[in-house]
Structure formats: structure tokens, C-alpha cells
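re: ur question from earlier - yeah i can do the single chain one, its not a big deal. heres the input i used so u can compare w yours
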Amino acid sequence: MARELIDDIRRIDQRKHALDLEITDLVDTTGTRLMELCGIGPLGAASLLIEVGDITRFPTKAHFASWNGTAPIDASSGAHTRHRLSRAGNRRINSVLHTMGQTQRRLKIPEALKCYNQHHHGPHDELKAMRALKRRLSDIIYRTMINDALDTTRTGPGGHQDHDSHSSAAGSQPHTDSSDKPLHGPATNQPKPPLKHAS
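and the output i got, formated as C-alpha cells:
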């Protein structure tokens, strides 16, 4: 029975490896740069492409953060101003962002550690610090997908071209306030303005 279980595990592992390669090839055909971001693998990139769909339906990075559950919720009381972690939003994408954040912390990416440590001052600040880190990573993903969409409109699906807004694994952290307010109704039916490379 033990040998049969080991054989089953080996078959499952081989199947998983084959599926990872297949997913990687499929993601590559889209021309996205998501997998160039530290902490985003084939499954994470595929989840983002499937769940998000057309990134231009989110007018701003704040709308995108509200949709994926990384925008903080105002929980102020009286003279005390504070925010709490949102339990709403797309949980699959929130999980991708959580994995991305944990990976960057484990690999000691400077910008990720700086963001996390700025909000981690005691044993009860872990959720607050992770919320701030995921909010920044959400901005990076939004910027990357917007730039991908712009490049696709210029070159067609799967097209690749060099440009100056390339996002690196360690140096692509945007300077945003982690207390950006969540916005309601991220999608819009209004005509889409011309895309511009996100800064």
C-alpha cells in the first residue's frame, strides 16, 4: 500500500509539473509581464488574467483595490482614526496578493520590507502591516496590467515591445498611501478614455 501511495504521489507530481508548464505557455501567449513581478507565478498570473478580465473597467488603482479587497475600511470612532482589513472583495485575487506579499517578505525585497515594517510596531500590528503591503502590491499589479493592455492595443494579443515602464521585481513599488479609501462600483459603463502608461 505504501508503494502504491508513493507511485500515486509521483504521478500526481508529474501531472502537476506538466500542468504548470502548460499554464506558463498559455500565460506567455498573452504577452503579460505579470510573471516578471516577484511573487507572481503561472497560477497567480492566470488567476489575475481570468478574474480581472479587462483591467480598463477599473478607472483607478483605488477602484481595483476596492474590488480585490485590499482597500482598507474606515473603522474610526470618535477622535480615533483607524482602518481595518476588508473581508470583502475577490478572495482569489486577495489570496494571490497575500502569497505575493509573503514571498517578497521571505526573499527580503527591500521595498516590501520597508512597507511592512513602517506599519509593524508591535505584536498586534501584523494584519495592519500585511494590509498595507497588499495594498501597494495591488497598485503594482494594476499598473502592470494597464501597461500590458496598452501594449496589446499597439501590437495585438501576445505582442511584445520594449518600453520604459517595465516593472521589476524589486524596484516597482509605487508611492501610494495605504489608507486610500475604498470606492464603490469599480466597473464603469462609460466610454473608455485612451490608455496611458501608468506611472
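The chain is about 50% helix and 0% strand. not sure if urs matches, ping me
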